[in-house]
Design a protein that fits this description.
Strand content: under 5%
Helix content: over 70%
Distance between the termini: 26 Å
Order of helices and strands: HHH
Largest sheet: none
Length: about 100
């Protein structure tokens, strides 16, 4: 994988984190009555976001093949969060 492909993957991850965070903050104000599943998914997203931001911060500290694998798993995990929030009507389907 080329450096430009890794950069694109990092950019996608950062954008997805921002996108989900923005939609969740707008759709679920503090104190909102949420389902247990939504609370669980919020916790999962927060954990995934933290892991993603740490991985982006630690760029260059691991071999490229390990980094790519980690980033691809994080992207898929964030896509799972996005899909839950989209299906729950919390996130815009346009994203």
């Amino acid at each position: 994988m080329l450096d430009s492909e890794v950069y694109a993957l990092e950019t996608m991850i950062a954008a997805r984190c921002e996108q989900i965070d923005r939609y969740v903050r707008e759709a679920l104000p503090p104190g909102d009555d949420r389902s247990r599943e939504t609370d669980f998914q919020l916790m999962a997203f927060e954990e995934r976001r933290t892991m993603a931001l740490n991985a982006l911060h630690d760029a260059g500290r691991e071999p490229l093949d390990i980094r790519v694998g980690r980033l691809e798993r994080l992207r898929r995990a964030l896509d799972c969060s996005w899909e839950f929030f989209r299906r729950a009507g919390i996130a815009s389907p346009a994203g």
